[in-house]
Amino acid sequence: MLKFIKIFIMSFLIICSSIGCGSNNAASPKNITLTMGVTPWSSTVPPTKIAKSILVNMGYKVEEISADAGGVYAGLSKGDIDIFMDSWLPDMHKNYMNTFGRTIDDVSVSYPNGELGWVVPTYVEGIDSVADIKGKESLFDKKIYGIEEGAGMTMTSKEMIKAYGLDLEYVASSEGAMLAQASKLIASKKPVICLGWRPHPMFVKYQLKVLKDPKGFFKTSEVHVLTNNKLKNKAPEAYNFLSKWNIDVSEIEKMIVEIDNGISPEDVAKAWIDKNKDKVDKMLGT
User: Is residue 182 a contact partner of residue 145, using CB atoms and an 8 Å limit?
Assistant: First the structure.
């Protein structure tokens, strides 16, 4: 009898193991940690915080990894980063995708109208195109203020300086340092050229115009959500949610301003989720 009971218990345990009895099986989100790449750009923060909050509510553990764009793409390609919410395609990040895209999945379009280029204050008259700068470089102290070395906009801007034959120095720095310099000059009503993109609070705080680019270096980009190519099998529910992700560019811009005004990114994300429950349910397929 005792032998029979032992055999029964062992058989039960084997069956449970095979069909996944219990709450701690490997497929459960509770056992999965997801990593999200976060660049220094303000546009990355709101969608990352919103998606993170939703994923945590789904039962996943979520960690953020801060890196420049190149580091994020490298991390995606190696599997160290699972998700990136702020990929500018097809143009601005094409070099990264050409290098790392073989092991990266492009899962959805976050928003289709990400405008970017060289910007000047609207009080700068007679400069409406990049071509208009030629011969007037001294007006801007022969400088254009940009973001970090290696960024897609940096590389494109350096190509533009040569292509348009401009006597300009590209001053590379962080987004914050670029904006601080531009803000200082704008406060004094002085001419300045810097990089600009939407969504960004600079277009809310200041009257700016994006210069026309006749040679077509900068084009309106779509902002995409990327994952590494292992996520679909590692966390299929998360992958399905991200494949349905979308948000309006004006909402991103509004949230960036709120964060700049001192509201925590987590609180901003929670407010958006609370206000958009139907949209969230649709992305979750519920």
Answer: yes
